[in-house]
Amino acid sequence: MPNPFKSILRDLPLFVEVARHKSFTQAADILDVPISTLSRRISAMEQQLGLPLLLRNSRSVELTESGRQFFERCEFIVEETENACETLLQDARNPTGWVRLSLTAEIFHAYLREAVTDFVGKYPGIQLNVHFSNYQIDLLTDPFDLALRAGRLPDSGLKARKLHTISTGIFASPAFLNAYPSPAKPDDLTALPCISFSFMRNRWKMRKGTRTAQPLINPSHIVNSANTGMYFVLGGLGISILPIPMATPHEQSGDLVRLLPDWTTPTVDMHILMADGRMPKRVRLFVDYLVEYFAKLPK
User: I need a surface site. Which of 142, 163, 199, 256 has the fewest CB within 10 A?
Assistant: First the structure.
């Protein structure tokens, strides 16, 4: 149904400016519109309301009683609208407010510790609300703007943007290799204790050039996070596939050993999930920052 007051709402700032200054000339100068246009649109407003709002003569403009009551109530509305617009423009120039992010603790500690410090340094008015969670949240109902997830994405209808591809490798601890033989080929993994993941099947896919292998794994332990798997491996409990960026510092310190380095294991994609492509500027800035940040990281 058409709004009968649409034109009145459109021209309300014109009436308020004339009423403030009691002058069509000053109001037209402030609004940067011709006096004739201003007069015509306010006359149309009066005609639609069925009441005179202004008393005009050659020297002054005065409010009628109806005009005074209308002005007193409408001036606040116009001021609040102007303030709201100014606030939005100010936020666009200097974005402020909360960005609510859900991710796993291992992704944060492996990738984002330095990133969040750098981002807040660039945008001190933006506040981060970081929530650690291993379960797949619903951005349409849960109170988050973004979710950062690694691995296969569910068909949720959310918008996803790929941030990074994580390479993986097979690792064991020196203590484990003192107790068990180091595998020389993928099939040797079948006879060794392995740490597998709840999202993996019992065959690990591997590739070497054009050759492929899928050795059968008999897990001695099963975990649901790479961080937990790494600590099982560091504790000498078995061999596992680990993200190379996570394992590299421990390999460099001698606490982990890369096995079958000529064979590659599947990569893991990391995505930023959004409920909608339209978002406040503070959220968009954070997404754009993460895209740029991850683009500089080694895979």
Answer: 199
Q: How many CA atoms lie within 13 A of 83 on its CB side?
A: 6
For every residue of 58-72, DSSP letters joined together read: SS-EEE-HHHHHHHH
Domains observed in the chain: 6-93 (1.10.10.10), 95-299 (3.40.190.290)
CB neighbour list of residue 142: distance below 8 Å, 6 or more residues apart: 102
Residue 155 φ/ψ, nearest 5 degrees: -80, 85
Asked if residues 281 and 147 have their Cβ atoms less than 8 Å apart, the reply is: no
Query: What's the distance, CA 229 to chain centroid?
Result: 28
Tens digits of per-residue pLDDT, 230-240? 999 999 999 99
User: Is residue 164 within 8 Å of residue 292, measured between CB atoms?
Assistant: no
**Rounded CA separation 108/112 (Å):** 5
Question: In whole angstroms, how far apart are CA 114 and each of 119, 268, 293?
Answer: 9, 21, 10
Does residue 85 sit in helix, strand or coil?
Answer: helix
The model's pTM is 0.62
If we measure between CA atoms, which residue out of 87, 64, 261, 289 comes closest to residue 171? 261
Half-sphere exposure of 181 (CA within 13 A, CB side): 9
The string of pLDDT tens digits covering residues 48-96 is: 888 899 998 767 789 999 988 988 888 888 888 777 776 666 656 678 8
Share of the chain above pLDDT 70, in %: 91
Amino acid at 174: P
The per-residue pLDDT for range 180-197, each reduced to its tens digit, is 999 999 999 999 999 998
Closest by alpha carbon to 76, among 10, 31, 16, 165? 16
Helix (H) or strand (E) holding 114: helix 113-122
Say which residue the tokens 């078995």 belong to: 238
